[in-house]
Structure to design on (234 residues):
């Protein structure tokens, strides 16, 4: 339902809202598969199948990546059509200029990026992030199938470290908000550097770099999963 909601919202109002679609698929598709396994008690098969462990890993990774990529292409083309035709202006009779977030952000770059370049950059960044998250979920399941079963367990040392890091980041952010730590000049420099990087080749270079990061991260997690699952005692 959330997928349809954000898809319709992005198609009708602002194409930039549609970036939630690949993020939702990347975040929930793999856990949904494993939750269905637990729901219907299909973790174990009472028989022998002529397959290796890596065949199971291959099937899960291939299914997840193909479905995720197909969903991304569908929503990307729909949002690109909406952005090209300016459907929000057509539907609301040119009274929705404030809803066209892509145009607003493109104007903020002072001509460094076009609307199409900014649109592609945002969507391919969302694709890369969703791919990284989804393959991480797959690896975590094969590494520990009980990691997402909802049961409470004693926190590990790594989880305590994560909590401390989150608390530290929250404290620093609060100090920045309260103007105790002044980082205005630093943010301006970082913003200029990011804009220069994003404006190269109208954003396509940075988008390609992000997709490459996502693909190589997926390959790394796939290889690690194959090696770990082969050595795991079931």
């Amino acid at each position: 339902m959330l997928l349809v909601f954000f898809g319709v919202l992005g198609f009708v109002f602002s194409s930039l809202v549609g970036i939630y679609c690949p993020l939702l698929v990347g975040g929930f598709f793999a856990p949904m598969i494993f939750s269905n396994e637990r729901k219907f008690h299909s973790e174990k098969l009472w028989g022998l199948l002529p397959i290796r462990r890596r065949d199971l890993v291959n099937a899960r990774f291939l299914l997840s990546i193909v479905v995720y990529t197909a969903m991304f292409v569908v929503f990307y083309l729909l949002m690109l059509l909406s952005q090209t035709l300016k459907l929000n202006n057509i539907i609301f009779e040119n009274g929705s200029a404030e809803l066209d977030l892509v145009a607003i952000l493109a104007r903020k770059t002072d001509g460094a990026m076009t609307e199409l370049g900014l649109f592609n950059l945002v969507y391919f960044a969302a694709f890369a992030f969703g791919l990284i998250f989804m393959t991480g979920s797959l690896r975590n399941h094969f590494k520990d199938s009980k990691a997402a079963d909802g049961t409470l367990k004693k926190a590990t040392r790594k989880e305590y470290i994560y909590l401390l890091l989150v608390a530290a980041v929250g404290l620093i952010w609060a100090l920045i908000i309260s103007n105790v730590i002044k980082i205005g000049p630093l943010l301006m420099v970082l913003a200029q550097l990011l804009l220069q990087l994003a404006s190269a080749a109208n954003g396509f270079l940075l988008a390609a770099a992000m997709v490459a990061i996502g693909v190589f991260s997926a390959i790394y997690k796939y290889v690690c999963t194959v090696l770990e699952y082969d050595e795991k005692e079931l």
Observations:
- Confidence is low (pLDDT under 50) at residues 148-155.
- The CA atoms of residues 36 and 106 lie 43 Å apart.
- The chain is about 75% helix and 0% strand.
